[in-house]
Design a protein that fits this description.
The complex is a heterodimer of chains A (216) and B (148). Chain A is α+β, with helices and mostly antiparallel strands. In chain A, 42% of the residues lie in helices and 24% in strands. The chains are: A alpha+beta (216), B mainly beta (148). Chains A and B meet through helix 2, helix 4, strand 7 and strand 8 of A and strand 3, strand 5, strand 6 and strand 9 of B.
Chain lengths: 216, 148
C-alpha cells in the first residue's frame, strides 16, 4: 500500500508536468502561427527603423516658386529623381505615380503630393518641367535647383546622378544616369519608405502603404 | 522582298501576335507599346516581348517609324546604383529564347520625335532584323504603362 501511495503523487506530478509541457508547446505553436497577424504588419516599401527626419531640400518648382520639403508637412510627399529627356525610366516612374494616385481612396488622394526632381537643370528649366510633369497627372509638381542644391539633396537620400556623353554627340545631347528609387516622406516630415523602381508597378500595394501611413 | 512575302508579313502584322517567317527566321512580337510622352520630349521608347521560335539567333538592329528620325537599340545599365542606358549595335533574341524590352531594361529608343501621339494611338513601326536585313512591320499602341 505504501508503495502504491507514494507512486500515486509521483504519477500525478508527471501528469501535471506533461500537461504543462503540452499547453506550453501548443501555446507556442499557436503564437508562432498567429504572429504574422498579431505582430507589426510589414510595409511593401522598404521601411526605416527608426524613421529619421527627411532632409529639407530647397529647390525651385515648375512655377518658379521656392519649394521646400517642409512645406508639405501634414501630407505624404512621394518623389523621384530624373530628367525630362529620359526615354525609359522617368516616363515609367511618372506613369506609375499616376496609377498609384488613381489607386488611392478619394479621402487619401488630397493628402499625397507627387514630385519629380530633375537632376538636369541645364536643360530642364521650370518652364520645361511645367510642360512635362503635369502631362502625367495635372496635380504633380516638377522641381529642380542649383547643382549644389541638387547634390546636397541627392546625397541626403543616398541618391546619385552623373552626366554621360557618347562620343560624337552634340554638347546638349547627353544622358543622365540616376538612382531610380521613389521616396515616401510621411506627414511629420520623416523619411519613412523607399521603393525600388521594380516595385512601382504594384500600385495597389503602394496605395495600401500610403493608406496605413495616413491612417495613423 | 517580293510582294507576296510583304503581303504575308502585313497579314501577319494584323494578328494579335505578328510574326515574320523568311527562310528559317521566325520571330513573334507581342505586347508592343510606345511610352506616351509630352511635347517637350525629344525621345521616347518602344517596348515589346520578342520570342524567337526558330533555330537561328536573331538581332534587332534598329527600326523605322514616321514619328521619329531614328530607332536605335539601347541597353539598360546599372552603374554604382544608378540606372542608365547605352547604345548597343543590336538586341539579340537567341533561338527558342524570349526577350522582354521594358522600362529600365533593353528598349528601342525613338530619337528626334517628329510627333507626340496620345495614349491609345496606334503607331506603325518596322523592325530591322539581322541576319538577312529582314524588315518586320509591327504596330505599337501608345500607352503610359505596359499592356496587361
Amino acid at each position: 500500500m505504501k508503495t502504491e501511495g507514494s507512486s500515486a503523487p509521483r504519477s500525478r506530478i508527471a501528469w501535471l508536468l506533461g500537461t504543462c509541457l503540452l499547453v506550453a508547446v501548443a501555446t507556442g505553436l499557436t503564437l508562432l502561427f498567429l504572429r504574422p497577424f498579431t505582430g507589426k504588419q510589414a510595409f511593401f516599401g522598404t521601411s526605416f527603423d527608426p524613421v529619421n527626419e527627411a532632409y529639407d531640400f530647397e529647390l525651385t518648382d515648375h512655377n518658379r516658386q521656392p519649394l521646400r520639403l517642409s512645406q508639405f508637412h501634414g501630407k505624404i510627399l512621394i518623389f523621384a529623381f530624373g530628367f525630362t529627356n529620359c526615354p525609359s525610366i522617368c516616363p515609367a516612374t511618372l506613369a506609375h505615380f499616376s496609377a498609384i494616385r488613381r489607386a488611392l481612396a478619394e479621402s487619401d488622394r488630397d493628402r499625397v503630393q507627387f514630385l519629380f526632381i530633375s537632376v538636369d537643370p541645364a536643360r530642364d528649366t521650370p518652364e520645361k518641367l511645367k510642360k512635362y510633369v503635369p502631362f502625367f497627372d495635372p496635380g504633380f509638381l516638377g522641381a529642380t535647383g542649383t547643382d549644389e542644391a541638387l547634390r546636397k539633396t541627392a546625397a541626403a537620400y543616398y541618391a546619385n546622378f552623373k552626366i554621360v556623353r557618347e562620343p560624337g554627340n552634340a554638347p546638349d545631347n547627353y544622358n543622365v544616369d540616376h538612382t531610380s528609387y521613389a521616396y515616401l516622406i510621411n506627414p511629420s516630415g520623416k523619411w519613412e519608405l523607399l521603393y525600388a523602381f521594380d516595385k512601382l508597378p504594384q500600385t495597389d500595394r503602394i496605395a495600401t502603404d500610403i493608406h496605413r501611413v495616413l491612417a495613423r | 522582298m517580293n510582294s507576296l512575302s510583304v503581303g504575308i508579313i502585313l497579314a501577319c502584322s494584323l494578328l494579335a501576335s505578328p510574326a515574320v517567317m523568311a527562310g528559317d527566321i521566325s520571330l513573334k512580337v507581342e505586347k508592343i507599346w510606345i511610352a506616351a510622352v509630352p511635347e517637350t520630349s525629344t525621345a521616347t521608347a518602344a517596348f515589346m516581348t520578342l520570342t524567337n521560335t526558330g533555330k537561328t539567333p536573331l538581332q534587332i538592329v534598329g527600326g523605322k517609324t514616321a514619328i521619329a528620325e531614328t530607332v536605335e537599340p539601347m541597353s539598360g545599365t546599372q552603374t554604382d546604383g544608378m540606372a542608365g542606358m547605352k547604345s548597343v549595335p543590336s538586341i539579340e533574341v537567341p533561338p527558342g529564347g524570349r526577350v522582354v524590352l521594358k522600362p529600365g531594361g533593353d528598349h528601342l529608343m525613338l530619337m528626334g520625335l517628329k510627333a507626340h501621339p496620345a495614349a491609345g494611338d496606334r503607331i506603325a513601326l518596322v523592325l530591322q532584323i539581322s541576319p538577312g536585313d529582314e524588315k518586320l512591320p509591327i504596330e505599337a499602341v501608345v500607352a503610359f504603362e505596359p499592356p496587361k
